[in-house]
Write a structure and sequence with these properties.
- This protein has two domains: 8-42 and 290-403, Aspartate Aminotransferase, domain 1 (Alpha-Beta Complex), CATH 3.90.1150; 43-285, Type I PLP-dependent aspartate aminotransferase-like (Major domain) (Aspartate Aminotransferase, domain 2), CATH 3.40.640.
- It is built from 13 helices and 13 strands.
- It has helices at residues 11-23, 43-52, 55-61, 71-82, 99-110, 125-133, 150-159, 183-193, 255-269, 274-285, 289-314, 340-347, 382-403; strands spanning 29-30, 92-96, 116-121, 137-144, 147-148, 166-169, 199-204, 232-237, 249-253, 329-333, 352-353, 355-356, 369-373.
- The strands form three sheets. Strands 2-9-8-7-6-3-4-5 form an eight-stranded mixed β-sheet, with helices on both faces.
- Helix 3 packs across helix 10 and helix 11 (289-314) packs across helix 13.
- The longest helix is centred in the C-terminal third of the chain and has 26 residues, at 289-314.
- It is globular.
- The termini are far apart.
């Protein structure tokens, strides 16, 4: 019998494998995939960039690069993050193979088996799978429309016998909840963490995908707040704003954290693809990103508005949700006596998939929500998908009335 390690026992890794297979089902109407639509990728711009590269740079595309990242890309990232108000001069950038690798590196850097990690509930399933793989004890704090519950966080911290290694949050257009933290809630969170020794891991994949220019200020990273006595590690990704196939992410941290993280990355994969780093750098350095982001914001806003319109038209009145201000997701709240897994079983029969609420619960139990992603949806399929979803919800609601006393 093969003796596997404990690391293979992540419940949420199985959820991710199922999610990826559902998201790519060609015969399905899929609200499952938290990914861009293939038709939106900047294929021509990337073609033009590669064709214009010198022969020497093209050759460099095929070569190993520094573990910390392709130097011109690090320079371009400094400019990009500086425009977000981030303290790039006092910190160091490590380029990673997707932001999930950054989360994995940080976890490996700080967490031993049994150590505590704090998360939001719900929480990004990819992060949960990483934390489980490293044997962490996950303690979760609920969120509302403004962010993490501060009172509950204080109570949790007071009850723990061991100091958590870090708190993981996704404050901007949260995956799966779609919310954005208010400035007040961000400030309150930093006040709670001040002086505790708990690191804040601020994961920010969606902040460029706001729908209203007047609300851009809400996306200001907490690492730019100059909080006293709070160590903040900031992670970001090109997956939602250029293409997940690039597998490019990054982390911004203090020198000491960066140096240990660089050593861990060296042992993992030596370096992130030079090919993709060079293409991404040219995209940034040639000022192609902001025009492309304007295009994406318009496209995602249109898809969000269509989904919002058809949900209002077709979904039963006792299903509620917060309309997102950006990002990819709408997070439906179900009546407490039904669960999203039962709805999924009905909707998939008719060819519609989404992600069940318990996928994002650290304990894989709470199932009174479901996540709909509008980013990957063909516009012409949205209403049909909502109608099928609505019929599935009504069927489950009706069945619950029959069996309830």
């Amino acid at each position: 019998m093969v003796a596997f390690s404990n690391a293979v026992n992540s419940r949420h890794s199985e959820d991710i494998k199922l999610l990826m297979s559902q998201a790519s089902g060609k015969r399905l109407i899929s609200f499952a995939g938290g990914m861009p639509n293939n038709d939106l990728f900047p294929v021509k711009q990337i073609d033009d960039i590669y064709n214009a590269l010198s022969e020497d740079i093209k050759k460099l595309c095929f070569q190993y690069g520094p573990t910390s990242g392709y130097p011109p890309l690090i320079h371009s990232l400094k400019n990009y993050l500086n425009h977000k108000g981030l303290p790039v001069n006092e910190n160091h950038i490590l380029v990673t193979t997707g932001s999930l690798q950054a989360i994995s590196i940080i976890t490996q850097e700080f967490v031993n088996e049994g150590d505590i990690i704090l998360t939001e509930n719900p929480c990004f399933v990819g992060a949960l799978s990483v934390f489980e793989t490293f044997g962490a004890t996950i303690e979760s704090i609920p969120i509302d429309h403004e962010g993490i519950h501060i009172k509950t966080l204080k109570s949790k911290l007071a009850s723990l016998k061991k100091t958590p290694k870090f708190l993981y949050v996704t404050p901007n257009y949260h995956n799966p909840a779609g919310i954005i933290y208010s400035q007040k809630r961000k400030t309150e969170l930093l006040e709670v963490l001040s002086g505790t020794g708990i690191i804040l891991l601020e994961d920010d994949a969606y902040s460029d995908l706001y729908f209203n220019e007047s609300e851009k200020y809400l996306t200001k990273p907490m690492k730019s707040f100059e909080a006293k006595d709070v160590e903040i590690i900031y992670t970001g990704s090109f997956s939602k704003i250029l293409g997940p196939g690039f597998r490019l992410g990054y982390m911004l941290s203090s020198k000491d954290i960066f140096e240990k993280a660089e050593s861990i990355k060296q042992a993992l994969d030596a370096c992130t693809s030079n090919f993709m780093q060079i293409l991404a750098n040219e995209f940034l350095a040639q000022h192609k990103l902001e025009p492309y982001l304007k295009f994406l914001r318009s496209e995602y806003l249109e898809r969000k508005n269509l989904l919002q319109k058809y949900l209002k038209k077709h979904i039963p009145a006792d299903i509620t949700w917060e309309e997102p201000k950006g990002g990819f997701y709408i997070w439906l709240q179900l009546p407490e006596h039904i669960n999203s897994t039962d709805i999924f079983k009905e909707s998939i029969k008719k060819g519609v998939v989404f992600v069940t609420g318990k996928t994002f619960d650290p304990k894989s139990k709470k199932d009174d929500r479901l996540r709909l992603s509008f980013s990957n949806m063909p516009k012409e399929s949205i209403e049909k998908g909502v109608i099928i979803l609505s019929e599935a919800i009504k069927k489950v609601l009706q069945a619950s009335k029959i069996v309830r006393p």
